[in-house]
Amino acid sequence: VQLQASGGILRQAGGSLRLSCAASGRSLRSLHMGWFRQAPGKEREFVAAITRNSAAINYATSVEGRFTVSREDAKHTVHLQMNNLKPEDTAIYYCAAKSILTSEYLYWGQGTLVTVSS
Question: Span 55-84, mean pLDDT?
Answer without folding.
Answer: 97
